[in-house]
Amino acid sequence: MSKNKRLANAGWWIGLVLFAGMICLMLGDILQRDGVIGSKTDVLVMGTNAGFKPFEYIDNNEIVGFDVDLAREIAKSMGKELKIEDMSFDGLLSALDSGQIDMVAAGMTVTPERAKNALFSDPYYSASQRIIVKKGSPIRNRYQLSGRKIGVQLGTTGDTLASKISGASVTQFQTAPSVLQELSAGKIEAVILDDAPAKQYTAGFPDLEILPGALSDESYAIAIKKDNTDLLEKVNKEIAKMKKDGRYDKLIRKHFGEEAKS
């Protein structure tokens, strides 16, 4: 074989290898952008229910809120991008267990029942359940809820509390705003809801009021899959760091306009 022919063959093979390399790079980029590869290492997936202002809600077609900002700081500390999956509140722990999401940040209260199915981070917010009624309602305290039509958000601690009230007829809704709309329309007589969303959403319903006194004292935490102790450790470490360096207080002021109470 002549020298020129050998050079031509070598050039052909080099060109083929370069072309194949370009195709592989392009395919890899497409798969990564579509989330087929790279998602496990580069993305932290947060599950939530975006109808729980100020913790998570939709503003200008974007999910925002206290929990979102908190989760984004956690993802950033791990060198990852935060991805948010919006779903029904009662389906969050199932999605966590199946691996669809990495963690739940959704104003979720730590309860013994939930702790059987997930790990929970250190608490990041102290909350309580409150009663909401129409102005002028004869219902003035928890003892007058017996036998009443009560609305709750499905799967929440408010839902659990309402189920224990004697003779009450409990109607479950997917989001906090939908519960209050039913109350305003007179289709139910009272709502049991977490205090912070209660304050946020009743501002848009001038005919509703929050009764004084709390039904419970509870703590919100981030839920993580049962065996993922590595992620739990990283989440706890970043929450503690945020509370120490002032970022946590900054988020509290941003979303609540008050000092931290946790």
Q: What is this structure's SSE topology?
A:
Elements: H1 3-33, H2 39-42, E1 43-48, E2 51-52, E3 56-59, E4 62-64, H3 66-77, E5 81-86, H4 92-98, E6 103-104, H5 112-115, E7 119-120, E8 125-127, E9 129-134, E10 149-153, H6 157-163, E11 169-173, H7 176-184, E12 190-194, H8 195-202, E13 208-210, E14 218-220, E15 223-224, H9 229-245, H10 247-256
Parallel strand pairs: 1-5, 1-6, 10-11, 10-12
Antiparallel strand pairs: 2-3, 3-4, 6-15, 7-15, 8-14, 9-12, 9-13
Helix pairs in contact: 3-9
Principal-axis shape: globular
| Helix and strand pattern | HHEEEEHEHEHEEEEHEHEHEEEHH
What is the tally of helical segments? 10
Q: What structural category do the secondary elements indicate?
A: alpha/beta
Strand neighbour order, sheet with most strands:
5-1-6-15-7
Radius of gyration: 25 Å
- Proportion of beta-strand residues: 15-25%
Distance between the termini: 81 Å
**Kindly state the mean pLDDT as a whole number?**
89
Would you count the extended β strands for me? 15
